Amino acid sequence: MRIVVGISGGSGAIYALGVLKALRELRIESHLVVSNMGEYVVNHECGVSLDELKSMADFYYENYDLAAPVASGSFKVDGMVVVPCSMKTLSAVCHGYSDSLLTRAADVCIKDRRRLVLLTRETPLSSIHLENMLKLSNLGVTIMPLSPGFYNHPQDIGDIVTSIVGRCLDQFNIEHDILKRWGE
Fold first, then answer.
1. CB–CB of 19/42 below 8 Å?
2. Residue 37 burial (CB < 10 Å; 0-12/13-18/19+)?
3. What is the pLDDT of residue 181?
4. How far apart are CA 172 and CA 25, in angstroms?
5. What local confidence, expressed as pLDDT, does residue 107 receive?
6. How far is CA 130 from CA 8, 94, 126, in A?
7. Cα–Cα distances in Å, from 143 out to 108, 130, 162, 163?
8. CB 39 within 8 A of CB 28
9. pLDDT digit string (tens) for 80-100?
């Protein structure tokens, strides 16, 4: 498999690290694109530099590089996840405003009907946010708020992150055993 991972400037960078780690452990090829604010938030929230982040992915592309492979529909990928997905990024994707590689790669997934999963981070949600989410959902995009369940009795933040990462992998039908499922 080949998955594009976009990191935008919403809070919740720890989830992006969890997704990259899981893809690496599962030997799934990852193609990373990080917005300027995404880079800032990863460093601010997790103390991880861009160089460290790059080392967690198989391939890294600058967000301004609209000639990168992931900007083209002829470059086959199994899908893309944006984690965390800010409302600015969600709005750009919703309205086809592909002024960066991250939003262009998402646009390519939509136009080529590939799996696109947006792990959104914002609260409360405005009517604008909700309308944008509905529009994208109607196009087949999965909107996955970073809102963990607690039925599995998480013991720490790591357990919460793992549950969201596992649910994200499920959206791509990736076999894994990283989360405790209901009834287990």
1. no
2. middle
3. 82
4. 16
5. 98
6. 19, 11, 6
7. 17, 10, 18, 16
8. no
9. 999 999 999 999 999 999 999
Phi–psi pair at 21, nearest 5 degrees: -65, -45
Q: Cα separation of 162 and 153, whole Å?
A: 12
Task: Return the structure tokens found at 18.
Answer: 């969890």
Whole-number pLDDT of residue 106: 98
Quote the CA–CA distance of 104 and 17 in Å, as a whole number.
22
For residue 182, give every residue at least 6 positions away whose Cβ sits within 8 Å of its Cβ, in sequence order, or none: 151
* Number of neighbours of residue 143 by Cβ within 10 angstroms: 17
Give the contacts of 18 (CB within 8 A, at least 6 positions apart): 161, 162, 164, 165
Token readout for 93 is 């994707």
Residue 113's nearest CA partner among 142, 87, 146, 145 is: 142
pLDDT value, residue 179: 85
Global confidence as pTM = 0.97
The share of the chain scoring above pLDDT 90, in percent, equals 93
Which residues in the chain show pLDDT less than 50? none
